[in-house]
């Protein structure tokens, strides 16, 4: 826990070295599985996202923002701690967020901020992790029990219960583009937005930190009855992929027809539009409360999403569409309007950004780097490369402006239900020139002309692990770089569990 030496207001007034007025509050909004490709502000001409687009017009859009893991729990806890997944204690989907880790709320609540986490949190435990208020799915279900929703008309066909991997993929990915059983007023996203508004209104005279996690557009791509039939599947874009993708297509997706794939994509677009509406409710509440200028608002996707990119759906890979995600930051006149920032950024950077923007003392032993100098145009440089890892499949990535290198132990077929049927691939290396080959169609790792570049990237990747990994210092120096990567790409919590059981 962090102890306050001075009041938050005093710190905000005294800490002015970057010559901009410190923010009183922060609202952090997360879209679940939100691809940059399905957002108007990022160039999509089909989807309707007026509120997020307006947020980008009023703030700064980051065009090259990367998650530190393309899976929900590790990504979210890296954001909330400013640490890479292997150091946050959460590198797997079901791992409980460790109590000893310092979350953004553990830091801010003792300083006098009112704090709340609303919606999806992936804590995988009953802990609040420093947040004074926690509202989640069970609270929504209680709301539905005590406030019975309107019954839909008999002719309205709704989505069946979500049963991934038990039902065929066309059903759990909602290829029929069916709505939920609820009208907008009673649906889960609207419930979370209303609870966020209540928190803002109740604390508008205090300093606060609101962490808001919507469930959309995660499969089954939820949207209420009023949103049905908004997007014609026939008009949906359908990426074709490349021959190299064939080795990595999960069996669960191999029987999907092009018609079903377009239906899935139309469901996703609809869910994004519903998400955008609810983000708009929260932004409007801030403005009505007179807090727009004094509140730092951050919108992110917890990672990207593959919409038949590379011939598959879901995330869990290191392709751009999975590891690059939306990042939009709004802060009134202090940050300017309509800026596009193309510097490489990581989502661990958001924790220190919030702390500096609020005028608080930086926290040591985190891996993020504050974006405030970029946001205030004190610098035009940030990172030379970004890092991500997906330890359920024992892989890690480093990306520069021009190159991307991916290592995987390949000791298992793809996990979490996405097995390819080809079996374990063994140790694999992927090297892409993302400048000349942005769709990542040609793996250059076996090309003799690129061995020096790959080795340089391996050294950089190893450096990240050796500076941040809990195993650092215990891996024998005599090991080859591949042997070291194999050790570092094991989920740390599994190793810890094995040690405890001995």
UniProtKB/TrEMBL annotation:
Residues 24-359 form the Sulfatase N-terminal domain. GO terms for molecular function: metal ion binding; sulfuric ester hydrolase activity. InterPro entries: Alkaline_phosphatase_core_sf (IPR017850), Sulfatase_CS (IPR024607), Sulfatase_N (IPR000917). One of its GO terms (cellular component) is cytoplasm. Keywords: Hydrolase, Metal-binding. Belongs to the sulfatase family. This is Sulfatase.
